[in-house]
Design goal:
The chain has helices at residues 16-46, 52-64, 69-76, 80-92, 114-135, 140-153; strands at 96-101, 104-112. Strands 1-2 form a two-stranded antiparallel sheet. It is elongated. The longest helix is centred in the N-terminal third of the chain and has 31 residues, at 16-46. The chain is mainly alpha-helical. It is 64% helix and 9% strand.
């Protein structure tokens, strides 16, 4: 979602860098807003009865595998009690299951069920198709340039 028309350009001036920094901030804000909206849409597709935060938990479990509830809460930056409540709701909907922790009989390990995995994949497919639509006419050089610039922006020197 661009915030400028195709004819609008940021021109060089004595304050050219400042104008470019402001334009960058505007475009990053647009990207973040679009990403939040897409996350909400993906979360609703994951399960319409759950808060969007449940999708964050499920997406983390999908990416990293079974874990203790405390580890999930820590990794997604959520409060343990909020995480426990979401896990309880997700268990009732057969999206996750808990099993005894083999390393600590007092604890449990949470994992996605087959239905939970399928719903995560469906929600992620929605996200992917939305982003694909935005870049489908781009050439490989443009995609590569964006990837490299984002990698540099995110601080990854690889």
């Amino acid at each position: 979602m661009s915030t400028t028309s195709s004819g609008d350009r940021v021109h060089s001036s004595p304050d050219g860098r400042r104008e470019l920094e402001l334009a960058l901030g505007t475009e990053l804000n647009a990207l973040l807003s679009a990403s939040r909206a897409l996350t909400e849409k993906s979360a609703a597709r994951f399960h319409p009865e759950l808060r969007p935060a449940a999708f964050h938990l499920a997406r983390w479990l999908y990416a990293f595998g079974p874990a203790k509830p405390s580890a999930i809460a820590r990794e997604v930056g959520m409060d343990r009690s909020a995480t426990s409540g979401l896990i309880r709701q997700m268990k009732q909907l057969d999206l996750v299951r808990s099993a005894p922790d083999p390393a600590d009989s007092r604890g449990v390990i949470i994992s996605l069920t087959a239905a939970g995995r399928a719903r995560v994949v469906d929600a992620l497919d929605l996200r992917g198709s939305e982003f694909f639509q935005r870049t489908k006419t781009w050439g490989e050089a443009e995609l590569s340039a964006l990837v490299e610039l984002l990698r540099k922006f995110n601080g990854d020197s690889q």
